[in-house]
Amino acid sequence: MPMPKKGSDAYNEWIKTDRYKTMIKRMSKAKKGKKRPDLSERNRRNTGEKHSMYGIKGKDHYNYGKSRSEEYKQKQSIRMSGENNPMHGKTGKNHPNFGKRKENPITSLHKLIRTCAYYSEWRLMVFGRDNFSCQDCGKRGTYLHAHHKKWFSLILEENKITSLEQAESCSELWNINNGITLCKKCHKKLHKKQKEKE
Q1: Of the candidates 177, 105, 109, the residue with the CA atom closest to the CA atom of residue 147
Q2: pLDDT tens-digit profile of 54-98?
Q3: Phi and psi at residue 148, in whole multiples of 5°?
Q4: What is the pTM assigned to this prediction?
Q5: Looking at beta carbons, which pairs linking 125-130 to residues 24 or more positions away fall under 8 Å?
Q6: What would the mean pLDDT of 47-51 be, rounded to a whole number?
Q7: pLDDT of residue 57
Q8: If exposure means fewest CB atoms within 10 Å of the residue's CB, which of 2, 49, 130, 132 is most exposed?
Q9: What angle do helix axes 18-31 and 117-129 make, rounded to 10 degrees?
Q10: What are the distances in angstroms from CA 133 to CA 21, 180, 186, 194?
Q11: Of 139, 138, 145, nearest to 182 (Cα)?
């Protein structure tokens, strides 16, 4: 069953259903008490261990108790303002990064579709139908992916989708029967198998 278009009468009726409300409650319950991993710890491990000040905190840190005077702050502000700033006037073609990163139009369309409201709703419906658990290993309480059984890129190619408007009107893309809930590990494994077949 394709997802009703957001803002339509069918959509407004759908969000009033008990199924939608229980799905939201399940999501809320699954997230309660969960803490995100300490990313600063991982970043320190990857980059900072070699630094001479790594792990030095509090009174042992060379900057402990020091504060910049208002006079110093004023001087710095003047020194780095206007034409003294090394990036002054470097906009557009003059910017050092101009033209270095060229976006692939196909990739940018994929990002646009994957960040739209339709995609979020489709994911939520697939997760709700599969009871927020991986359909391969049965894992719950982990980061889940909504996988298109018929590949996302293949649907775009077959339906000749070149814009977000075309994607929103394509019912095949938002069909929840074409979606399956997988954990990150199983999703990676599935794509690896499919690539090996080709």
Answers
A1: 177
A2: 677 778 777 788 888 899 888 888 888 888 888 888 887 787 777
A3: -80, 120
A4: 0.47
A5: 125/3, 125/23, 125/176, 125/179, 126/176, 126/179, 126/180, 126/181, 127/23, 127/27, 127/181, 128/19, 128/23, 128/26, 129/176, 129/181, 130/180, 130/181
A6: 56
A7: 78
A8: 49
A9: 90
A10: 18, 10, 12, 22
A11: 145
* Measured CA angle at 100 (ends 98, 105), to 5 deg: 100
Of 157, 166, 153, residue with least CA distance to 118 = 166
Instruction: Please name the residues in contact with 188: beta carbons below 8 A apart, sequence gap of 6 or more.
Output: none
Cα four-point dihedral sign 156, 159, 160, 164: negative
Q: How far apart are CA 54 and CA 39, in angstroms?
A: 16
Angle between helices 117-129 and 105-114 (to 10 degrees): 60
Neighbours of 118 (CB within 10 A): 19
Q: Give the model's pLDDT for residue 134.
A: 92
Neighbours of 173 (CB within 10 A): 23
The pair of structure tokens assigned to 8 is: 């339509």
pLDDT in tens, 162-187: 888 888 888 888 998 999 999 999 99
